[in-house]
Specification:
Length: 302
């Protein structure tokens, strides 16, 4: 039976989590390792990193064309965000072999089956899920992910991609990086779809802020991409003020150092924490985490 960990002295993280991870096999035990990373070691970091990962996919003209055509971001952006977060966190929490992870994966595959999505676009999105958590924890986490954890992280997402029937998944992170560099040269072009989906997503983020701070989110978020001009050009955004990124990085690093010694939230963090804005305390079915238009379509199809 898998161990469950608890805070030490009511506020300290348990070092036993990292010890268990280190003793597991990166490939064979990748589902358990990802659960431990998600629930205990990096829950806040992974949530922020995967938000940026999804945002970065808008740099691709072909990905954004599909997303913008659905109209989900402009019509029901908060629901789309909450559904995606819940599906991904259930998969990371229980793995594809666990009941909730299996059901979430089935829901993802069923939803994707309604759209014509190129294999290359699936691969690019998959790469962002691998890359951004590694990048975030390296710069802002309570500690960097170890090479062992990074390998497990890669194997987890590669395994998930196989179960999503994505062809051509590279055999290593380095090979995936090389593939993505070529993909971005082909697809990161200024276009209206990328700009529209990025703007709609920023509107979601800004709706979470007090009224006086709305309008400030855009330059702050884009400052994290100020070293990636192809992305900024693709979403038709000017380079943010140069002073923003150093200020934001100092704040994020300071928060990361604090979390190295102090658990600032629940432990472990479960998929339903924090409470999402769409469902609140109301129960939901994983099978219903889909756009409303797909729900109506699937109901007609029986």
């Amino acid at each position: 039976m898998s161990a469950t960990y608890h805070k030490r002295f009511f506020f300290r993280p348990d070092a036993g989590v990292a010890r268990e991870i280190a003793g597991l096999d990166a490939k064979r035990d990748c589902q358990r390792i990802v659960h431990l990373l998600t629930a205990y070691e990096f829950p806040w970091d992974f949530q922020r990193a995967l938000e940026l990962a999804l945002f970065y996919t808008y740099g691709s003209a072909t990905v954004s064309k599909v997303l913008n055509a659905t109209g989900q971001f402009s019509k029901s952006g908060q629901k789309r965000y909450d559904d995606t977060r819940l599906l991904m966190t259930h998969i990371m929490d229980s793995g594809w072999d666990g009941e909730f992870g299996r059901r979430a994966l089935e829901r993802v595959n069923k939803s994707h089956g309604h759209y014509r999505i190129a294999a290359a676009d699936f691969l690019f999105v998959l790469w962002t899920f691998i890359e951004f958590p590694i990048r975030w924890t390296t710069h802002f986490g309570p500690r960097p992910m170890t090479p062992h954890e990074q390998r497990a992280w890669f194997y987890f997402w590669a395994g998930l991609g196989e179960r999503m029937h994505i062809p051509g998944i590279p055999e290593s992170k380095a090979a995936f990086d090389r593939w993505v560099a070529d993909y971005k040269r082909r697809t990161f072009k200024p276009n209206d779809d990328s700009a529209a989906v990025a703007a709609a997503t920023l509107a979601i983020f800004e709706s979470w802020l007090p009224p006086l701070l709305r309008g400030k989110a855009s330059p702050v978020i884009y400052s994290l991409f100020d070293d990636d001009l192809p992305f900024l050009n693709a979403v038709k955004v000017s380079l943010p003020p140069g002073y923003l990124r150093p200020v934001l990085e100092r704040a994020l690093r300071a928060y990361g150092k604090l979390r190295r010694h102090v658990v600032t939230g629940p432990y472990p963090v479960l998929p339903d924490s924090p409470r999402n804005r769409t469902y609140g305390d109301r129960p939901y079915r994983i099978e219903d985490l889909r756009p409303e238009s797909l729900g109506k379509k699937e109901a007609r199809q029986g």
